[in-house]
Amino acid sequence: MKFVSRLFSAAAALLILASLAAGCFAAPAASAGESRPDGQVEVLRLEGGTDWGAPTPFQCQSRGPGTAKMELVYASLLEKDETGDIGWLAESWTVDGKDYTFTLRQGAAFQDGEPLTADDVAFTIDYYNAHPPVSNPLAAGTDACILEGYTVVDERTITLTVKAPDGDTLTSLGSFEILPRHVWESVEDPYTYTGEGWLTGSGAWACTAYDGPTGSYEFTAVNDFCAGTQAAARIQFVPASDALLAFENGEIDITGVPADLLDRYRADESLGFVEKADDTGYKLLINFDECPEFLDIALRQAVYAALDRQAVVDKVFRGAGSVGSAGYVPRSSLYYSPDCVEYPYDPEAARAVLADKNLSVTLLAADSGSDVAIAELIQLDLEAAGVAVTVESYDSATRDSMVNGGDYQFALVGNGGWGNNPPTYLRTIFSDVSKNQGGNPHSMGPIGYENAEITALAEGQRTETDFEARKAMFQQLQVLISREIPLIVIANQSSYSMYRKDCYDGWMKTYAYQQAEQNRLSYMLR
DSSP for 186-227? Predict the structure, then answer.
């Protein structure tokens, strides 16, 4: 299937054509599912149909599918495998106090053939401070920026000096995507720029087609990528109105499988499966500026009592999941604390607290996936307890924008990544210092709520480098969150992907992320 973005400028299209002619990109292949002599699969096809933004650090959507596509095109210094941080554009690194020195790989280059040097890394830092990207592990452009400065040592070596090193510093320094200086130094507004070189990245794949209206993407392997060999010559995200049917018809090569059909498909020995335990979660955010009455903790406790969260697991998730812990971290996590306060379903107790308060709220939700069904269950339960609820649903991008802007009273937010490194994401959700930064609805915490004790623990565990001590502090944080209820945790959903083993069998999860289809190492020969 061919698709051409109407967003491509003529200059960008000419650049891609010239690069193809010059051999900067791997030549497209004819058929999917076949292996080339070098071990590459000709084409891997995945479900498209949703516009996750253009794959640049400034125009991709902040959710996983958006940043994952951007990260195919743009590379960072480090990557993650099953056990920890590994080299990507950087071949090695050393740590000396606040100084982190990275040495770039020989042959590191951008997709237009220009060398990638330490000067590009330095430029990227400065440019991000002036124009923060969608995904911002450096917290660039904010008072919370982790960098104090940098020193370009030579063409391949740069030392990044941080304000205060902590357990997450190496991962954060290794995670920002490197920009080509020769493209972006003359661009004043990267958030709207679609001119020459806008899709020239530093990653293993070039974006050779993107069409926002249809949610179609094509990525083509770059020859001689410095960090390894791609497992696919091309990756395509193609529109599929019914992903399961598209998989059955051989139109896509991997897809999610509903929990109630899992046993049926497991009987097929030609299929492989990736389990993502409790990796998706749903939370109910309260905007306390709009609903100050809920600063009364008794009302928040009553909301928990009003909600039949097991019904979400049973009716919406078809049993593939668990009632969420009020401490936020999923029960299956290595970091989960069993000492968290439990809030069982008790509709009579909820009504005794809420019924005479004459409360009325608007519940913001997305209009896709499981969100509407969960929102409707929440509405029924709260109304049974005496709270009038109006559900307003929007497309996910609009809902995310409203959440980021605080334009809501109650908001249902569902996202993946609950299996990530909890010390990182709890801080960005609950600390009054670090929460609600970066424009990512995944990490949005309560608005109009502050708690000095939660903030002290959330920030303090970040600087603790001893794993066991950090874990103990982190479990204290969970218990405190469960007791104070800054937000309501609904449920966690487990999910599965299935794929054809004879087509490609290299899908993998990292130590901090379970979504194999959104992990660029899944697309590399290992």
Answer: T-S-TTT--STTTT--SSSEEEEEEETTTTEEEEEEBTT-TT
**Residues 6+ away with beta carbon under 8 Å from 288:** 294, 295, 446, 447, 448, 449
Identity of residue 402? M
| Contact between 256 and 243 (Cβ < 8 Å) | yes
The sign of the CA dihedral 447, 453, 456, 459 is: negative
Q: Are 101 and 153 in contact (CB under 8 A)?
A: yes
Q: Are the C-beta atoms of 315 and 381 separated by less than 8 Å?
A: no
Q: Which residues, at least 6 apart from 475, have a Cβ–Cβ distance to it below 8 Å?
A: 335, 337, 339
pTM of the predicted protein model: 0.70
Are the C-beta atoms of 502 and 329 separated by less than 8 Å?
Answer: no
35 by DSSP, 3-state: which?
A: strand
**What is the DSSP track for 394-433?**
E-HHHHHHHHHTT--SEEEEEES-TTS-HHHHHHHHH-TT
User: What is the rounded distance in angstroms from the CA atom of residue 305 to the CA atom of residue 351?
Assistant: 9
Residue-wise pLDDT for 414-442, tens only, equals: 988 787 777 777 888 999 988 766 555 56
Condensed to tens digits (0 to 9), the pLDDT of residues 96-122 reads 999 999 999 999 999 999 999 999 999
Taking the C-alpha atoms of residue 298 and residue 285, their distance in angstroms, rounded to an integer, is 16
Q: Which amino acid is at 166?
A: D
What mean pLDDT is predicted for residues 349-371? 95
Average pLDDT of every residue of the chain: 89
Name the 3-class secondary structure at 122. Answer: helix
d(CA 274, CA 247): 15
Q: How many CA atoms lie within 13 A of 290 on its CB side?
A: 17
For 217, counting Cβ atoms within 10 Å of its Cβ (0-12 exposed, 13-18 middle, 19+ buried), the class is: buried
C-alpha span between 507 and 524 (Å, rounded): 9
Q: Which two tokens stand for residue 302?
A: 């009553």
Q: Are strands 78-80 and 157-162 parallel, antiparallel or unpaired?
A: unpaired
3 state DSSP class of 282: strand
